[in-house]
Design a protein that fits this description.
Number of strands: 12
Shape: globular
Strand order of the largest sheet: 8-9-10-12-11
Number of helices: 14
Helix content: 25-40%
Largest sheet: 5 strands, mixed, barrel
Radius of gyration: 24 Å
């Protein structure tokens, strides 16, 4: 079994994306990852689950495209099965890969692939110097599993739930199982990212203030002289003095953005006309923020005429009107269309604002012709 990773050379469209190639005997599959892989936190957790025999282990490796999921299941005490399947494509049910291997063989194949990738071609400048993959101890995955076999779960909590793929209740439960010192070390991790963000935005004074406060935290913990109340009080004073917001620390509270997103999802209906802003542009479509929920407007649904790239029509931050053409509540996916708002094919390419002016009329027509027909069926 062999795993190969190749960094994309197209910085404009696939910046930070990795081509993942898995070979076994006469079977081979290649998949483009998405920003879900950055900075490989979820890959590390997934491999940790396999090492600790916490199976099945699932990981989405292309969340923003058609959607691909890697699944490892236990066949026996020694053998596991790895398969790769689509997870949000209703018409594509083909299993792209299905192989068996020992747990150690699988771990080593991914470990060797990542290490070779780091040595041969990895360029942190195309990602982020903060998320330098060379700073991750991949070799630790090849060591015998810990006694409790739960390090992957603790790491998941410290990474704050793997980007929202753990339920709110589950995330809070695991976070509360961390010791107070572990929680403070995670807070220090978040503060380091916050400091970098402040520095990048030219807020040098604020960054220095946080460095001055937290630089002694590891020493206080090591010497057994850590006083949580003092740090908490001092942070409140700094926030007032410099007008700082909680930023990363806010993620440690029970409330999370995914809660509001789930609530927003429940208000959406098939055929509904929604207004939003372009959040992200990819080669296959754009992600639209529709009042707190991110929906996909696929490139094929932008216009009735062929669109070479979404940048022909949209820019990040622009206003857009679209019809909801598909809602998958279970997977939390919403698909949009602007092509169904066109009076004539290609109107979105000529002048989107003219399309938006007639949007209510076209949305009503879409509802009559499509949605009501589906309901009758």
């Amino acid at each position: 079994m062999r795993v190969t990773l190749t960094q994309s050379s197209n910085e404009d469209i696939l910046r930070g994306w990795i081509l993942l190639r898995i070979e076994a005997d006469h079977i081979c599959t290649q998949i483009w990852t998405s920003s879900t892989f950055n900075p490989y936190q979820e890959l590390y957790i997934w491999l940790g689950q396999i090492r600790d025999s916490q199976l099945p282990a699932k990981m989405i490796i292309d969340e923003e495209g058609h959607g691909v999921e890697m699944i490892v299941e236990c066949l026996s005490d020694l053998v596991v099965q790895l398969r790769i399947e689509p997870w949000m494509c209703g018409n594509d049910t083909t299993t792209r890969l299905k192989i068996t291997a020992s747990r150690y063989e699988l771990l080593k194949a991914f470990h060797d692939g990542v290490i070779k990738f780091l040595q041969d071609e990895y360029q942190p400048s195309q990602w982020s110097y903060i998320d330098d993959l060379s700073n991750t101890n991949w070799g630790a995955l090849l060591k015998p599993s810990n006694i409790s076999g739960q390090n992957w779960r603790i790491r998941l909590a410290m990474y704050w739930g793997g980007r929202g793929r753990v339920s709110e209740t589950g995330r809070e439960t695991v976070w509360n199982q961390l010791t107070p010192l572990q929680q403070w070390l995670v807070i220090l991790h978040d503060v380091m990212l916050w400091i970098t963000d402040l520095t990048a935005n030219g807020q040098i004074t604020e960054a220095y203030a946080l460095v001055s406060l937290y630089k002694n935290l590891p020493i206080d913990i090591a010497l057994g002289e850590f006083d949580a109340s003092w740090y908490s009080q001092r942070r409140i004073e700094l926030n007032k003095q410099y007008g700082l917001r909680e930023n990363f620390i806010e993620r440690r509270t029970p409330y999370n953005h995914s809660v509001s997103a789930k609530a927003r999802l429940k208000t959406l209906k098939l055929g509904q006309l929604v207004d939003g802003t372009i959040h992200k542009i990819k080669s296959y479509g754009v992600f639209v923020n529709i009042g707190g929920y991110y929906a996909l407007l696929h490139i094929a649904a932008i216009s009735q005429q062929t669109v070479e790239h979404p940048q022909q029509v949209f820019q990040v931050g622009e206003w857009v009107r679209a019809i909801i053409t598909n809602i998958d509540v279970e997977k939390g996916r919403v698909s949009l269309s602007t092509s169904d708002l066109e009076l004539e094919p290609g109107d979105m390419l000529k002048d989107p604002l003219v399309v938006y002016e007639k949007a209510e009329e076209m949305a009503a027509r879409y509802y009559q012709n499509v949605v009501l027909k589906l309901q009758r069926e």
